[in-house]
Write a structure and sequence with these properties.
Length: 491
């Protein structure tokens, strides 16, 4: 099955619109209908409530006076004409992958948005992730049944990894008469949503397939941030504070906190910056070493002699390459295809203990805290609740307007519709030549653990640090040692 050709519209002065698919692209002569919001008293006071057809949002905000206009995405929001009548809509909502604060809020706002804004009364909840489509596990969702779920952690629909059988899923969509599918999940889930869209399109079904990006690690590209991230950083403060209290209460105390971050260290970085009690932050993007001058052991010894205690924050994906070959689990993967990681927090804690026991330079007391599942399971905070509402309502507006094959996301502070292929093309990573990482190093006073001469030039001979010298926030593409491409906004 071939992939849909990207819809790219070019304009003057280097303007590029990476548009999203529309039902009318493959179903001719679709009728349009009056948008019920025009008669909704709640929106009667809003001037120019409907989004103009030409409204777009730039991917990059800070440019030079001679820069081209650059890449844009279609702005999210309600349209004057819709492609579904309220009583014909049969919507389905599914949550996939790991837990994340805000899942229930998104479910609630999808149901309430469909009902209160567009008069949609038939909404199904697919239980247990993708496999719920073909194992016939569904529940009816109404505004009254989801009224208070945003105050609870987890997802009322349940979730799972894997279980993606495209034909079975689309067969179920077709058999049940579902014509709007809202899929909440991370990059793997969004890839699955893209395949579902392609099959729906191939069969010529009038069905909008919409993604809502969910990843507590904040590793989905293009969007400003993912929902649940603010809550995770806030909740991580509790663990860091506990580690700090334990460490400073004893002589030569060390507190080690492991936070989420399989491939991207955003939670560890932002939690460290917010806390100001952390002496060392270790993330997957920044390799470190233990022994020798400038190594972690030497730094720990220096900090203990200076302050009498220290706190180390480590992301779960950091330091995996340091684990011995006999312990490494490269070939083991979970149902989503992610490599199964070993507990680097326990490993590094034991290694620190062994080092000081062997060297006999200092008698240390080390406490290890892993708050991972406590953080994932909490309800979202106020900031994330608002964000979840915007994501859900934007997704609903787009589906009703006939758009499909897109993810609803925040870009430069505006809600947009982003084509699936842009969301799934790569992961968002911390760029260690970015100002934000420099701020962290300044905050903790830790060594960078990298050779500055090596890091100053990428594969193309460019100096990523040059982008920081002119005081602008610039987008830069970096290629790491494995050939992975990452784009970052350096501010």
């Amino acid at each position: 099955m071939g992939l849909t050709e990207p819809k790219v519209v070019s304009g003057p002065s280097g303007y590029i619109l990476e548009d999203v698919p529309h039902l009318s692209d493959y179903i001719p002569d679709l009728p349009t209908y009056h948008n019920p919001l025009q008669d909704n008293p709640a929106y009667s006071v809003v001037k120019q409530y409907f989004v103009h057809v030409d409204d777009t949002v730039p991917q990059k905000v800070v440019v030079h006076k001679d820069s081209p206009r650059g890449t844009h995405f279609r702005r999210a929001g309600p349209r004057q004409k819709v492609y579904f009548e309220s009583d014909e809509v049969q919507a389905a909502i599914v949550t996939c992958g790991g837990l994340c604060p805000g899942l229930n809020t998104v479910i609630r706002e999808l149901v309430c948005g469909l009902h209160h804004m567009y008069g949609v009364t038939r909404v199904l909840g697919i239980e247990g992730g993708y496999k719920g489509f073909y194992s016939r596990n569904t529940i009816a969702l109404t505004p009254s049944s989801v009224n208070g779920i945003h105050k609870r952690g987890g997802t009322i629909l349940g979730t799972s990894r894997g279980g993606h059988d495209t034909n079975k899923i689309v067969d179920s969509i077709q058999d049940r008469g579902i014509n709007q599918v809202y899929i909440i999940g991370g990059d793997g889930t969004q890839k699955g949503a893209s395949v579902i869209f392609e099959e729906v399109r191939r069969r010529g079904l009038k069905c909008s397939v919409v993604g809502i990006p969910k990843t507590i690690d904040n590793d989905i590209p293009i969007i400003d941030k993912s929902f649940g991230f603010d809550t995770a950083v806030e909740e991580a403060q509790r663990a860091i504070n506990a580690a700090h209290v334990e460490a400073e209460s004893v002589e030569n105390g060390i507190g080690v906190v492991k936070l989420m971050g399989r491939d991207s260290g955003f939670i560890a970085m932002y939690a460290t910056l917010a806390s100001r009690d952390v002496d060392c932050c270790l993330i997957p993007e920044s390799p470190f070493y233990l022994e020798g001058p400038g190594g972690l052991y030497e730094y720990i010894e220096e900090r203990l002699k200076e302050n009498g205690h220290m706190v180390i924050v480590i992301a779960e994906g950091a330091g995996q390459e340091l684990l011995s070959a006999s312990m490494q689990s490269d070939k083991k993967k979970d149902a989503s295809g992610n490599k199964v990681l070993l507990d680097v927090g326990l490993w590094i804690s034991q290694n620190i203990k062994d080092y000081f026991a062997r060297e006999k330079t200092l008698a240390i007391t080390l406490k290890y805290i892993d708050p991972t599942y406590m953080i994932r399971a909490v309800p979202s905070n106020a900031s994330d609740n608002v964000y979840c509402t915007l994501l859900a309502q934007s997704a609903v507006h787009g589906a009703m307007a006939g758009y499909t094959g897109y993810t609803s996301g925040l870009v430069n502070g505006r809600q947009t519709y982003i084509p699936f292929y842009r969301i799934t093309e790569r992961r968002n990573n911390v760029v260690i030549t970015d100002r934000m990482w420099a701020r962290l190093l300044s905050s903790t006073n830790q060594p960078s653990f990298i050779d500055v001469e090596v890091s100053n030039e990428d594969e193309n001979g460019k100096n990523p640090l040059d982008q920081l010298a002119d005081g602008h926030c610039l987008e830069d593409t970096l290629v790491d040692e494995n050939g992975s491409i990452s784009t970052a906004i350096a501010c």
